[in-house]
């Protein structure tokens, strides 16, 4: 024998309230939506039929009346009293595109705030009016109804504890939130809450007037004055709307939320996933006829159609950016000042955006700020420092050697410099290795080299235990006495040595296997063009020579922002105090 499922309505309502809907407030939306669908259904057959929806709320009772299609007694049993049954799906079970509802559960949300739902309805088919009362305990009663005109009235009385959702001001706010863009006249306690439609529609307004309205909308609803407004249109998704470009930098890591209307009814104020991640500089307000809602009706269903729409919207924003570069470079520069991080992140994967950055975003270089395109055109090669510290240390010296260098230390800049090859495969890109500079330094003439040899040997003895090699060269700027140069291999060897000093014997042995030969030692390059270095090289007093070399070593470390190891800081301390000792006249005590 076949039996029917039994439904425990309280259990289902609990499920809805705790797991589906974020707040009981959605009951207003569901009632409004049913009324809109009923009016739509009636007008599909008779486009002269009245289209009015009135909400009246007072004393804890809310009544919503529509001039919609109404229900016959048979339909009341089938549609109101059967959970999951909807008149808004086709034979295959797909939601029909004219209607907002599709799941057949919305009316249950009334039980989030009331114990009883009363419906009085008169069908457009001419059937007599019916009255239906559904109760939260899962029972319902049907009888003849009192109603002269075609349409439906749903009445709810607040359950104890749910009175807050029946306060007239709250209901006005909720109905306005959900329904202000709906195409029918909707009133709450006699006051109209529906407006002139979507603010981006093309109508008789002048373009200036329209954009002023759109700015006003952003200020009022989103709380900012947009940098720019981009019209959006994806016919496949029945989507129209606008993207507001943010006037302030947004965090690229944060998923941006968008205001989404579904067939003119608010779906979500903060729906994620509508734009590609890179477009975090825009907030959209859109209306879509085709994208599907989740059952809670609070987000978009993440399916292939949403993915295709996301891509199409991304294209439209990309088009706006590229268009701006062609028509209004100054404005593009202002945009980049606010949103360069996002655009650069995008340029890592996207050639159009890379072109934009290449041509328009000025980078820091040791010959002034300029774009990559300009740098390339002037100097042929894109030479860059990969970190800001390296740039700070080497920019001045490199400039004096006529070596233009880009600071690649800012977020994404090094990767972007390397990526320029995607645009111009021929371009030369060089990462500046500090050791490259030494080849640009001049050797001393043979006589001078011979003369300073004892000094170099003494200096080497001083810094030997610190693991570096002393060389004397001549280079510009002459005002710079000393440079501590670590090439990348030496930097690695240095880190290894530091680790070895802090780990136990076994690991020190293992790490030794990675150690490079001596020639990778960092270099302490003394500048013979510097008068102080010359004087030091001629000192007779061995103790003072050592002290001077140690001080130069310490200064070079500090200038280049190199890591200071315990041995270095001990040396710095000692050298500083001894220098003071030499400098301060010896008094009585
Ligand atoms: N005001 C109304 N006028 C006419 N019919 C209505 C009205 N309200 C509800 N109905 C009927 O009751 C059915 C069930 O409504 P319910 O709100 O539970 O689901 P739905 O609107 O079909 O889908 P969803 O769960 O997505 O809202 C509707 O499909 C509709 O046929």
UniProtKB/TrEMBL annotation:
<dbReference type="GO" id="GO:0140662">
    <property type="term" value="F:ATP-dependent protein folding chaperone"/>
</dbReference>
<feature type="binding site">
    <location>
        <position position="152"/>
    </location>
    <ligand>
        <name>ATP</name>
    </ligand>
</feature>
<dbReference type="GO" id="GO:0005524">
    <property type="term" value="F:ATP binding"/>
</dbReference>
<keyword id="KW-0067">ATP-binding</keyword>
<feature type="binding site">
    <location>
        <position position="30"/>
    </location>
    <ligand>
        <name>ATP</name>
    </ligand>
</feature>
<protein>
    <submittedName>
        <fullName>HSP90 family protein</fullName>
    </submittedName>
</protein>
<dbReference type="Pfam" id="PF13589">
    <property type="entry name" value="HATPase_c_3"/>
</dbReference>
<feature type="binding site">
    <location>
        <position position="66"/>
    </location>
    <ligand>
        <name>ATP</name>
    </ligand>
</feature>
<keyword id="KW-0547">Nucleotide-binding</keyword>
<comment type="similarity">
    <text>Belongs to the heat shock protein 90 family.</text>
</comment>
<feature type="binding site">
    <location>
        <position position="34"/>
    </location>
    <ligand>
        <name>ATP</name>
    </ligand>
</feature>
<dbReference type="GO" id="GO:0016887">
    <property type="term" value="F:ATP hydrolysis activity"/>
</dbReference>
<dbReference type="InterPro" id="IPR020568">
    <property type="entry name" value="Ribosomal_Su5_D2-typ_SF"/>
</dbReference>
<dbReference type="GO" id="GO:0051082">
    <property type="term" value="F:unfolded protein binding"/>
</dbReference>
<dbReference type="InterPro" id="IPR001404">
    <property type="entry name" value="Hsp90_fam"/>
</dbReference>
<keyword id="KW-0143">Chaperone</keyword>
<dbReference type="InterPro" id="IPR020575">
    <property type="entry name" value="Hsp90_N"/>
</dbReference>
<dbReference type="InterPro" id="IPR036890">
    <property type="entry name" value="HATPase_C_sf"/>
</dbReference>
């Amino acid at each position: 024998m076949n039996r029917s499922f039994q439904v425990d309505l309280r259990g289902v309502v609990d499920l809805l309230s705790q797991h589906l809907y974020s707040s009981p407030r959605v009951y207003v939306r569901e009632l409004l939506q049913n009324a809109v669908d009923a009016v739509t259904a009636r007008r599909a057959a008779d486009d002269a039929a009245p289209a009015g929806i009135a909400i009246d709320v007072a004393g804890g009772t809310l009544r919503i009346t529509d001039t919609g299609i109404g229900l016959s007694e048979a339909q009341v049993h089938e549609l109101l009293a059967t959970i999951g049954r909807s008149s808004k799906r086709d034979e295959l079970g797909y939601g029909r595109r004219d209607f907002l509802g599709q799941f057949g559960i919305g009316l249950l949300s009334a039980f989030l705030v009331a114990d009883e739902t009363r419906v009085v309805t008169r069908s457009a088919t001419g059937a007599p009016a019916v009255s239906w009362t559904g109760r939260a305990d899962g029972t319902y009663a049907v009888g003849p109804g009192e109603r002269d005109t075609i349409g439906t009235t749903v009445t709810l009385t607040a359950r104890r504890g749910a009175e807050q959702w029946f306060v007239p001001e709250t209901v006005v706010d909720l109905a306005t939130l959900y329904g202000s863009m709906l195409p029918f006249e909707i009133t709450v306690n006699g006051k109209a809450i529906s407006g002139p439609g979507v603010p981006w529609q093309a109508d008789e307004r002048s373009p200036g007037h329209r954009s002023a309205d759109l700015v006003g909308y952003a200020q009022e609803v989103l709380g900012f004055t947009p940098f720019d407004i981009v019209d959006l249109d994806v016919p496949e998704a029945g989507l129209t709307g606008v993207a507001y470009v943010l006037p302030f930098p947004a965090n690229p890591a944060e998923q941006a939320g968008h205001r989404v209307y579904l067939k003119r009814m608010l779906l979500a104020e903060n729906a994620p996933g509508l734009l590609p991640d890179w477009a975090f500089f825009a907030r959209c307000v859109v209306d879509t006829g085709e994208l599907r809602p989740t059952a809670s009706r609070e987000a978009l269903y993440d399916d292939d159609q949403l993915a295709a729409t996301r891509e199409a919207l991304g294209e439209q924003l990309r088009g706006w950016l590229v268009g701006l570069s062609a028509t209004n470079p100054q404005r593009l520069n202002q945009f980049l000042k606010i949103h360069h991080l996002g655009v650069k992140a995008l340029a890592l994967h996207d050639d159009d955006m890379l072109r934009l950055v290449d041509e328009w975003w000025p980078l820091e270089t040791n010959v002034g700020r300029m774009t990559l395109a300009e740098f390339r055109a002037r100097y042929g090669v894109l030479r860059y420092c990969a970190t800001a510290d390296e740039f700070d240390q080497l920019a001045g010296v490199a400039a004096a050697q006529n070596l233009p260098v880009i600071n690649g230390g800012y977020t994404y800049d090094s990767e972007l410099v390397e990526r320029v090859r995607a645009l111009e495969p021929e371009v030369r890109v060089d990462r500046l290795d500090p050791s490259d500079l030494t080849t640009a330094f001049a050797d001393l003439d043979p006589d001078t080299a011979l003369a300073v040899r004892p000094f170099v040997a003494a200096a080497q003895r001083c810094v030997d235990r610190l693991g570096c090699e002393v060389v004397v060269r001549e280079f510009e700027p002459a005002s710079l006495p000393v440079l501590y140069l670590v090439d990348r291999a030496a930097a690695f060897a240095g880190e290894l040595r530091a680790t070895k000093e802090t780990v136990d014997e076994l690991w020190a042995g293992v790490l030794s296997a990675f150690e490079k030969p001596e020639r990778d030692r960092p270099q302490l390059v003394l500048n013979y063009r510097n008068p102080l270095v010359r004087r030091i090289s001629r000192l007779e007093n061995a103790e003072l020579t050592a002290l001077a070399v140690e001080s130069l070593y310490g200064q070079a470390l500090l200038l280049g922002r190199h890591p200071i190891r315990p041995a270095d800081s001990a040396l710095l301390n000692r050298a500083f105090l001894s220098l003071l000792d030499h400098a301060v006249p010896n008094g009585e005590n």
